[in-house]
Design a protein that fits this description.
The complex is a heterodimer of chains A (115) and B (112). Chain A is 0% helix and 50% strand. Chain A is an all-beta fold. In chain A, the strands form three sheets. In chain A, strands 2, 5, 6, 10, 11 and 12 form a six-stranded mixed sheet that branches. A four-stranded antiparallel sheet of chain A has the order 3-9-8-7, with no helix packed on it. The mean pLDDT of chain A is 90. Chain B is an all-beta fold and 112 residues long. In chain B, the strands form two sheets. In chain B, strands 2, 4, 5, 6, 9, 10 and 11 form a seven-stranded mixed sheet that branches. In chain B, strands 1-3-8-7 form a four-stranded antiparallel sheet, with no helix packed on it. Classes of the chains: A mainly beta (115), B mainly beta (112). Chain A binds chain B through residues 4, 32, 36, 41-46, 49, 51, 90, 92, 94, 96-101, 103, 105-108, and chain B through 2, 31, 38-43, 45-46, 54-56, 88, 90, 95-98, 100-101, 103-106.
Chain lengths: 115, 112
């Protein structure tokens, strides 16, 4: 069965520091992987997605993630944190291309940016 | 963009509730998610051109409708305390993973 774990429910970084949010998944077949961001009182916004093309995926707002099959990981990074990056981040996995009922979200990581 | 109404809603146990979503123009697919406090969203179901084409692990008292005018509804009967959550709808052009889902801001439902 699919599952997603996000190590660290809360992560704090200083402004300008590296952001690293961890995501590990389990899937019996090559997955589709996603990172979403949720700002307070807003819906989810897609940051980036992996669909079996390049293993390094670049997204919006300077974020990128690397798919590592051997580690079953899809960690999200940003070289330099900005105050506006403070939000909740969700990793998600989907196995089938045409079935949304296979999308599983992780529990989320709350990112705080310290000035 | 995707809009949802109402923003907040308070109901009592046993009542029925209807949540509304307005999809992005031209999108054929709408999906509904339940997000309990402190958790990630859980897929409820998806509608493609007015037909349900996918459902998560939710009982039949959760039902939906999709209308031709880019609007849709989530109906929940016999509300339970555990139904308290943020309900998100998302629209997309198709239903494959290559189609980006655009989320609304959600409706916060509180069941007392």
């Amino acid at each position: 069965a699919q599952s997603v774990t996000q190590l660290g429910s809360h992560v704090s970084v200083s402004e300008g520091a590296l952001v690293l949010l961890r995501c590990n998944y389990s899937s019996s077949v090559p997955p589709y992987l996603f990172w979403y961001v949720q700002y307070p009182n807003q819906g989810l916004q897609l940051l980036l997605k992996y669909t079996s093309a390049a293993t390094l995926v670049k997204g919006i707002n300077g974020f990128e993630a690397e798919f590592k099959k051997s580690e079953t990981s899809f960690h999200l990074t940003k070289p330099s944190a900005h105050m506006s990056d403070a939000a909740e981040y969700f990793c998600a996995v989907s196995e089938l291309e045409t079935s949304y009922d296979k999308v599983i979200f992780g529990p989320g990581t709350s990112l705080s940016v310290i000035p | 963009g995707v809009t949802q109404s109402p923003t907040h809603l308070i109901k009592t146990r046993g009542q029925q509730v209807t949540l509304r979503c307005s999809s992005q123009s031209g999108h054929n697919t709408v999906s509904w998610y339940q997000q309990a406090l402190g958790q990630g969203p859980q897929f409820i179901f998806q509608y493609y051109r007015k037909e349900e084409n996918g459902r998560g692990n939710f009982p039949p008292r959760f039902s939906g409708l999709q209308f031709p005018n880019d609007s849709s509804e989530l109906n929940v009967n016999a509300l339970e305390l555990d139904d308290s959550a943020l309900y998100l709808c998302a629209s997309s052009l198709g239903y494959g993973q290559s189609d980006t889902q655009y989320f609304g801001p959600g409706t916060r439902l509180t069941v007392l």
